Amino acid sequence: LDLIGMDLDERGFVKVDHQGRTSIPHIFAIGDIVSGLALAHKASYEGKVAAEVISGMPSVVDYKCIPAVVFTDPECSSVGYTEAQAKEKGHKVKAGKFPYAGNGRSVSLNHPEGFVKIVAEEGTGLILGAQIVGLEASNLIAELGLAHPPH
Questions:
Q1: E-only strand ranges, 100-140
Q2: Contact 81, 119 (CB under 8 A)
Q3: Is the pLDDT assigned to residue 148 strictly greater than 80?
Q4: What is the pLDDT of residue 150?
Q5: What's the pTM?
Q6: Could you check whether the bond before residue 74 is cis, i.e. omega within 30 degrees of 0?
């Protein structure tokens, strides 16, 4: 990479812009060679954006829409901003939290521990982020990821 003049960051990852373009304009990079989480679905998403840009579409990477999951017991998942992050970004925030213990399905499965928290913009109700701790959090976060608009 040094021989072709590719810019790397201080950790050795290939530097890319918001479209996956490297310091060499006709070369794009995605996945484990760029900074960020080493997740297969992150790399797939970056590849999709790069392909769209190469084909002339006005696409950009928006990592806020990519869910993160920790496969523990109970599972933990997140998408978008936490309440603190949304406030740091200057949003007027309204957050709601609902316990799994109040959900009949969770109770019937004998897994009442956990919660769902949704972080929204006050006034518009636009979902800025969500966090889930509990049974099937890894699957449920996908729905909230769809409800979280890009950009």
A1: 114-121, 127-134
A2: yes
A3: no
A4: 58
A5: 0.74
A6: yes
